[in-house]
Amino acid sequence: MEPAHRPPTVIGRDAELRVLTDLTKHVAERGAAAAIVGEAGIGKSTLLAAAAHHARGQGLQILRAGGVESESLVPFAGLHQLLRPVLGAAEGLPSPQRRALMSAFGVQEGPPPEPTLIALATLSLLADVAAERPLLVAVDDVQWLDQPTHDVIAFFARRISRDPIVVLGTIRKGHTGPFITSGPLELDLLGLDDASAYNLLSAHADYLSPSDRDRILRAARGNPLALVELPVAWRHTSETGARPIPSFMPLTARLETAFAGRVSQLAPSTSAAVLVAAVDSAGEVSQVIAAASVLTGDEVSLSDLEAAAEAGLLRFDEMRIRFRHPLVRSAILQSHSVTRCQAAHAALATVLADEPYRRTWHRAQAIVGPDDEVADELETSHETALRRGSPISAIWALERSAQLTTEPARRGRRLLLAAEHAFGLGRADIVDRLLGGASDNPLSELDRARMEWLREIFRDGVPGDAARVRELCDIARQAAAADDCDLALNLLLGAALRCWWADTGPAARARVVKIAEELGNAREDPRHIAALAVAEPVLCGRVVIERLSGVVLESVTDADALRLLGMAAHAVGDQVRAADFLDRSETRLRDQGRLGLLPHVFGMQASVRLDLGDWERAAAATEEAARIAQETEQPIWGNGQLVNFARTAGLRGDVEQALALASQAEVSPVLRNLNDFLACAQLARGYAWISAGRFSDAYEALERLFDPLDPCYHQRERFAGLMFLAEAAVHADRRDDARRVLAEMEGVALITPSPLLHVHLLYARAVLAEDGEAEDLFVSALRADLTRWPWVRARIQLAYGSWMRRRRRALESREPLRNAQTVFDLMGAGAWAEQAHIELRAAGERAPTRVRPVQNVLSTQELHIARLAADGLSNREIAQRLFLSPRTVGSHLYRIFPKLNITSRAQLASCLTGEAEDVSPVE
């Protein structure tokens, strides 16, 4: 049962409190998040406490946590504090989520959990708890939370709009972080108005003379903490004759000085206990008293803490100590010398023998110069941080370990290891800083090769840098000679990706292939296959497809290996196989909560699905890729989705949007010099102009893809434009020009068996053929196995039906035209469906009932949820797959059913395939 609480006194914050209580009042209808932002002492914590008191009165249960600056490197300390009252409910979580959460708290041993899986477990746990009773999550001093906890709070704050949860966090002005960028409502607290400031001062210091009161009001500038604390310091200086606090000092410094003055009055044993509590990361009463006793060399007791509480510095119960305000903690640290603070850390380390992680952390704070023993302990402790799912804490431990290391080569190696963990987080800024430090130390050839790979990994795609490709290949060869094949493959793939993103020329591409051939013992490694594919998608297309065809899909269980195999298949245009590899990779990455790699997979999936005709899922992949790339700070994968959005819009006939997005991609600082994205932008333009019936414009846009001297040329992306170039040529009277391109691509088809190229050739040959040859080519094309290529098959059927109708074979033309229209309607290919409709009417057939495509009725996310539900997944399973809460999924389904005029999940499958009798939405 929750204890009774007295309501905090709030003066001058009625409007802000009303905003917060409105959020909790409507929590049953919608979740919400709000950030209370302001300078130190402005009243953020008091307002948060008042909102929590009101929420309790409205029947909400309250979960609290508070950031502590000295605790910011203890992984998930804040999250454990927040969830401790409800951890019993974790038994109901799916087992992967439960294991991840318990591993993060050090309760259960296991492989290092993915941070996203911990965040998803937290979301699921809070959603389950809130389903029983609406919930307020109140987090004070978010800026001092440990980074993993901060990330988790931002994660669930983004996703609670459908759950009865309100998240309120206080943040000191000038600080940023994932919570404030997750989009909460922001309340910016300013100083109190004059009347409120006067009332607050009078309530706490009615003994002041009018002149002293005026001086404090001017000094406090409406800051509530100053209005309460400065009078105490003022009285102290008056009574003791001490020098008054200078008015020119910054307000925060004046408050710290005010608190520090109070600290100076404490007895030595009390002062020691307070100092230990200030440097402690947990605030456990028994540990603080024990460490203070070590620090003083004499017995310290609870009475010493009581004296500090009476002085208004802290509060404590049987278990924990909490400072009245963060400025109290900083004032205490400010009032002691560095040596004394280090002694307090050392005392704590002495009493933490049973907690090696925290013991090592405090030992590291207790010394200044090199200490190899502590450095070794820190390197070992970084593994504990990884096991708990906190790479950022592991990075700090390794960086501090390097600072304490005497041997330069070892110091450099530890910084490189920290940089590798930073790479895993996608933090280019941290990687650069750590590599800068590592480069100042003597490194082995192998470590220098590793450093080059880490420098490269965030820079693939620098345009035209053939010299860098050759350099990376040489370093890869050195790594292989040193028997580090793993590093050699990473470097080689980095070099190959440069060849894919931007034109590095045939010599550089050939160099990648040559080094790959030298790594013959790594032929089956997915990185080896991917490097060949992205470096030379045409010349290596045959060998890559042969090797991919030898891979048994079900035998590959590693998500990243599946991603790389999907990358290789996509690069050579084997889109069906790419879809299978990438879909399987997506499933595993979702199950493992590996959010960072998902945008890579989604970006490729979107392109593949556009080519195959699954436009609904392509749009879903593009949207999710952009959202997660933003969350995980991967700008090339976030901005890269512009071209997928543009291509989708162009195919669906949204011409203005397609052209705008294509232009936006071309001027994006991240994309503008990369041939791959420029080529895709031209594809989007070509699709859009065809959809608009402006075939001459479409031809001019698409022909640039086939000109090796044009910046938009890309030897593999042009495959996806051939069919459209042929269509535009027919309508723009550019057949002869298009036939020259066709002849060139026939030559390319002799080199690579790329399925994407060959299915486009089926269409292009037929529509560009002379009348005497066209029918055989159409028939031959339709006899090909296009089971997984419904879009291409429908395009051929439309072209063939139109060809027959123009030759007065109206009756024969109807069947292919009818089949094409059905597929186009289901896909949402409005421009092409309309063409088929017009041709059918011209062929004398009354227009059949048009299928209402579900993408015109449902949002992208609703479509995704509907498909998963149609596949038989439960709400909880869908939530886990999409990183949502089950209630959010349920809310979406609640809206989906009436939109599709259905009443049960069983009807979803027929609706989504167009087999339902009536899928039109209810008006």
Distance between the termini: 48 Å
The name of the CATH architecture of the largest domain is 3-Layer(aba) Sandwich
Overall 3D geometry? globular
Number of domains: 8
Tell me the radius of gyration: 33 Å
| CATH hierarchy class name of the largest domain | Alpha Beta
Q: Output mean pLDDT.
A: 87
Helix percent reads 55-70%
Derived from helix and strand composition plus strand pairing, the structural class reads: mainly alpha
Number of strands: 7
> What is the CATH fold-level name of the largest domain?
Rossmann fold
Description:
The structure is a single chain. Mean pLDDT is 87; it is low at 916-923. With 923 residues, the protein is mainly alpha-helical. Helix content is 64%, strand content 4%.
Quickly list its features:
two-stranded antiparallel ribbon, Rossmann fold, mainly alpha, 923 residues, globular, 47 helices
Outline of the structure:
The protein is mainly α and 923 residues long.
Task: Give a topology summary.
Blueprint (H helix, E strand, L loop, with lengths): L13 H12 L6 E7 L5 H14 L3 E6 L10 H7 L11 H10 L10 H18 L2 E6 L6 H11 L7 E8 L5 H4 L3 E4 L5 H11 L5 H11 L3 H17 L10 H13 L4 H12 L5 H12 L5 H9 L3 E3 L4 E3 L2 H9 L3 H14 L4 H10 L6 H16 L3 H13 L4 H17 L3 H11 L6 H13 L8 H16 L3 H17 L3 H14 L7 H10 L5 H9 L9 H14 L2 H18 L5 H15 L2 H17 L3 H5 L1 H12 L2 H13 L7 H17 L3 H9 L18 H11 L2 H17 L3 H14 L2 H13 L6 H17 L3 H18 L2 H13 L17 H11 L4 H8 L3 H14 L8 H5 L11
Parallel strand pairs: 1-4, 1-5, 2-3, 3-4
Antiparallel strand pairs: 6-7
Helix pairs in contact: 1-2, 4-5, 5-6, 8-10, 9-10, 10-11, 11-15, 12-13, 12-14, 12-15, 12-16, 13-16, 16-17, 17-18, 18-19, 19-20, 20-21, 20-22, 22-23, 22-24, 23-24, 23-25, 24-25, 24-26, 25-26, 26-27, 26-28, 27-28, 28-29, 28-30, 29-30, 30-31, 30-33, 31-33, 31-44, 33-34, 33-35, 34-35, 35-36, 36-37, ...
